[in-house]
Amino acid sequence: MISTLQPPRSLSHFRSNPTLLLRYTSLKPLSSLSSQPVTHSTITDQSQSPNPPSHSQILSTRHSLLSRHLTATQLAESFLTRLRLTEPHLRSFLHVSDSVLAQARELDEKIQRNEELGPLAGVLVAIKDNICTAEMPSTAGSRVLEGYTPPYDATAVRKIKELGGIVVGKTNLDEFGMGSTTEASAYQVTANPWDISRVPGGSSGGSAAAVSARQCMVSLGSDTGGSVRQPASFCGVVGLKPTYGRVSRFGLMAYASSLDVIGCFGTSVADAGILLHAISGHDRLDATSSKREVPDFSAQFVSMNLLESKPLKGLRIGLIRETLDDGVDTGVTSAVRTAALHLEELGCCVTEVSLPSFSLGLPAYYILASSESSSNLSRYDGVRYGNRVAADELNSQYMDSRAKGFGSEVKRRILTGTYALSAGYYDAYYKRAQQVRTVIQKSFKTALDEHDILISPAAPSAAYKIVEKKNDPLAMYAGDIMTVNVNLAGLPAMVLPCGFVEGGPAGLPVGLQMIGAAFDEGKLLKVAHIFEQTLQNCRFVPPLIADEVA
Amino acid sequence: MASTIFRSLHSHPFLFHPTALIRRKYVILYCTMRSAQTQTATQEKVKPQVKVSPHSTQSKALEKASKDYEAVIGIETHVQLNTLTKAFCSCPYNYGSPPNTSVCPICMGLPGALPVLNLKVIESAVKVGLALNCKLSLNSKFDRKQYFYPDLPKGYQISQFDVPIATSGYIDLDLPLEFGGGHRKFGITRVHMEEDAGKLLHSEGGSYSQETAEVDLNRAGVPLLEIVSEPDMRNGIEAAEYAAELQRLVRYLGVSNGNMQEGSLRCDVNISVRPIGQLQFGTKVEIKNLNSFSSVSRAIDYEISRQVLLHSQGQDKEIVQETRLWEEGAQKTVTMRKKEGLADYRYFPEPDLPGVFLTTDYVDGIRNSLPELPETKRRRYEKMGLSMQDVLFLANDMNVAEFFDTTITKGADVKLATNWIMGDIAAYMKNEKLTINEIKLTPQELAELIASIKDGTISGKIGKEILFELLAKGGTVKGLIEAKDLVQIVDPAEIEKWVEKVLSENPKQLEQYRGGKTKLQGYFAGQVMKLSKGKANPGLLNKILLEKLNAKS
Ligand SMILES: [Zn+2]
Question: How close is the nearest chain B Cα to the Cα of A438, in Å?
């Protein structure tokens, strides 16, 4: 399947572009793209694998800079060039920073002076546009914040900058994170790098597409009901949703405060883990951020050479039965079952586990998220910032500013939430949904007492066509079934590419979701890393850029 | 105009609206409120009731009708806490700062900003809850109260809804004697924590074509305690005294300056009238814009009269559920807005803040650190034998009470100390517009002064002179007596010399005296005292004087 790929005609000029001859060290050419069938080979023959596993771009950046193999400027230029060339097809960025090269040059000077480098020195990071950045517009994909530049950096952004990371730009999203396709952005529709006629997923579609197309090395997204994991699955990248409270929400424009978390995208498990480590920890500006110590996640990344034959021996994995029911594409089901077999090969004990409350998650999620959003979005009244429609009197000003500032999906959720919180309906909707949330938390607790990790698909299907579900919100909501329960329970989860289904010029990636116990990101990263390093014959570089990085 | 208001914010890089937002018809309400505020009576103490009579011809009928009706009054009080920083951010709050100079992304409700609770707010709430004899909720939480208004930056107010931090308490107070006196106990329904809103400022449009209103967010996010009373009060005086006692309480606790003019203590009154004997309440009317205790009292009495009159004329249907404003100038209440059904605030638990959990250790620690409260103090003073008038005077002001208590612990006589404080010291403070903390006299010296008079070191007259010196300039009683050589002269020989001198210099008067005009004794005494520069012991002086006057008669 993969060997038959041709880059889209429109991108054929990539080949002749001289600037692209600069090879990024971590994206080593692959010796072949053999189409041999996926086999569940044992670890012993991994070393002869023709497909080297995903590298950490962060670690190779560091290595390249410290060894003076490449300069930060060269690295930044190569990424910016790729960004410029792919952006007309993808439209993943709402804003691209104009100071990336200046920052890279500054870093190079530091290197020349032998100054100490932060762990993210030279790492090119894209930020979802609902996360505040002091020097760049932050619109949350909404007209109501058109032209708005916050006076401060979100805590996660501040930490990235302090550790040496360079913010490349702000990525597209469904307005305020409300959507699963990134089509609900007020500004543009982002395309999936694997097939530009398809959606990248959402709401962090811009961040997922940008990492997938190597427009940046890693990116931040936000995940309220699956907004990091589902686009990671659609775009074939690693998406990590941390435990609620692990990462400060300060500076994340609130959609549903009790569910929102900032999450990480990378092309490798290691990158997602390193980025998570950088942004984690208690923040005195977020009362819901946890004071728990942040372990060194990179300690979990065991080198391939040191792996035993059954490196995950004894690990108990629960495959959530309800996620393989009707309504899930057979291609997705079989990819996940194949992944389960792979985990067994690694020594895991995989059993099916039932979460009877699973199907309750979706309605509970939509009631709670809508209720909180109806409140969180009240501040966009046109009084202090953003778009204001001049009006003769106060009510008209509110109504006009909000009517013109918000898109239809946002309005739909504000209305739903306002209704659910209204006197006389509160008990039937909001309160009931909270009770369901408690039930779901308990059932996850029980399942995670018996299993180390739960697995499921990340979405019922691979990426679908742009416009396909745009006018059918219920169908789009249904696509969140795999992910929303995890937010309701506040648990950490990661999605990593595990296979393909047919579709598009090169097949479409399928993500495997791994769910862990609260604050046990370390275990998730360890398992995911071994899974990734031992996965055979899958290479998750989208056809849009396959030529260049191949 | 607007740009000057917001000038301080222009240095921030975010997009801030330089112009304002609402046309005049939406701020008329604020204009009237502001003009009313400027005329507000500033007295803190309730004045005897102003006679309220809508029309003199009706007053008799009203007086008669009043006996058949009773008013039911409950009060919602907002107390602004004097924490160093606001409730959920680190901005300070200083009353009267230029608009929008004490704001940050959090209290402005900027996207992505989150509230973090100032723990001092909980401490203050627990103090007030304990002082009001409430049951504390060890597990409470914050909720969002949602409505749109330009002074509410987030579109919701962080408040407490179904689980307030304190409930079911009561407050004791003693009515002043001029209002008939008597002890009262009023129920407290609940105490909860919340944040204040900003203020709308009105300005003429200046060069802009339309008149606009501006928002000052300095006050937004300042912590408040809302204290809700049971409907236990029956007239304006009781309500005003309730408010005054709350003010006393928060000042004693040090949690608020309780200043009504600055809005640190705001009372909204709910009032209904029903025929005596009727169990169910009449239609409730809310009165706002009460900026002093006297306006609380007068507004309520006006409103009772208005409602009683309507009842007695069979027009009780005219009493509707509404909010009325007290107009200080006209001395009456006027309709502000009619309530059209209950407002739906769509309360739900604030997801940005964790629950508020109190441990019993924490509560006990605060309980043990509470100062002596006004009620306890009053009962103690009463037991010391002071009259209720003295008790109320001393306990009314925490600093006066502390001055008094210290004077007593330095050994001063209770009654004498009370007299000095309530007499000359109070008069001096009033004349000079000083508080007891601003006068130079210390309790130590007052005790010394009282002792010096008592033991005869100085006369009462000299004592008074020294007092005013101490009040104005400070110093010690001993030092002044020494410096001015004011020690009383008790040496009979010396006094005798002065007496003889006076008698010899006034032969004519002496003759008159001896001729029967004995009233002249006072004249001689005065002359001798003058000669002694006031230092002669008056008893001794008179004794010797009489002896000499009568000696050769
Ligand atoms: Zn502030």
Answer: 15
